[in-house]
């Protein structure tokens, strides 16, 4: 057993999940997490939407909502880190308790509600790290009480254009009432039209390309997936993140599974991977997809890639396995390439799309 499993995890699990999350951020900020040597396997590199990813493994939004420790997280070995979700005005989020471990299921339920410090605070932190290397995505959202939610997303583009490696438009959190309605075809088309217009204007100002990605829910019917694919292709977004947390409940062992909110971690793996493969089939081979949901080891990471993901994100598994998991997954992916005789991770993308897409969610 690792030091994390023997000592750190038992101590963290004795306190409230949200308090433990804060302690983890403090540990990262203090530099007590260690760093991974930058000798990544070159076979794991990916070149996508104008960015060079040293490996396909990324941190999903939610851990570092306010951009407090992106460089420490990159130091764990992640190929990229996504911060947020951030809204224009600071937001307290939903009432506590709002974060629950499902230990028996290796899952988490959250109903945080986009709690964050707002645009101004994040912009100041990002300005302070200007010039440092590493791919930092910014996940943008809307305030709960906003009169014009689309305007909130446009504001995110304008505020962070000088700092973001890419943007994720998050319309799929289940914890802001009505937010998922923005995934409907007409609403999504209008949203993306305004966001992309703002992106184009900001590109002229900052002098570089600003990729726009869209994060979708796993709970959509297949017709809803098809509508999103049609709009994403017609508007030429740079990629899709598949998927956010689920409001559905597969069979769960932990009593905390009855809590309302978005479910992530191991119980989400199968559904999110099916949706990923279905979306790959809908958009074709060229649009970059990021697979999220239930990645907890090299095998599940590779399964996402085989189902159609160009890149992968995870977060919940860190709660259970600790920061050393990043390097462990990267080593495991290299071993899988050796075992399968594949020259690069890019050659594995979509090799099992049809099998996964045929599964019943």
Mean model confidence by pLDDT: 96
Number of helices: 12
Sheet having the most strands: 8 strands, parallel, barrel
Percentage of β-strand residues? 15-25%
- Unreliable stretches: none
What is the overall shape? globular
- H/E order of the elements? HHEEEHEEEHEHEHEHEEHEHEHHH
Structural class: alpha/beta
Outline the fold blueprint:
Blueprint: H1 3-12, H2 17-29, E1 46-48, E2 51-53, E3 57-59, H3 70-74, E4 80-86, E5 99-102, E6 107-110, H4 119-128, E7 136-140, H5 149-160, E8 166-170, H6 185-206, E9 212-216, H7 222-235, E10 239-242, E11 262-265, H8 269-283, E12 289-292, H9 298-307, E13 311-314, H10 316-321, H11 325-340, H12 353-357
Parallel strand pairs: 3-4, 3-13, 4-7, 7-8, 8-9, 9-10, 10-12, 12-13
Antiparallel strand pairs: 1-2, 5-6, 6-11
List keywords for this structure.
single chain, 361 residues, alpha/beta, eight-stranded parallel beta barrel, three-stranded antiparallel sheet, 12 helices, 13 strands, 15% strand, globular
Give a description of the structure.
- This protein has twelve helices and 13 strands.
- The model has no long low-confidence stretch (mean pLDDT 96).
- The strands form three sheets. It has an eight-stranded parallel barrel with strand order 3-4-7-8-9-10-12-13, surrounded by five helices. A three-stranded antiparallel sheet has the order 5-6-11, with no helix packed on it.
- The protein is an alpha/beta fold.
- 38% of the residues lie in helices and 15% in strands.
- It is globular, with a radius of gyration of 19 Å.
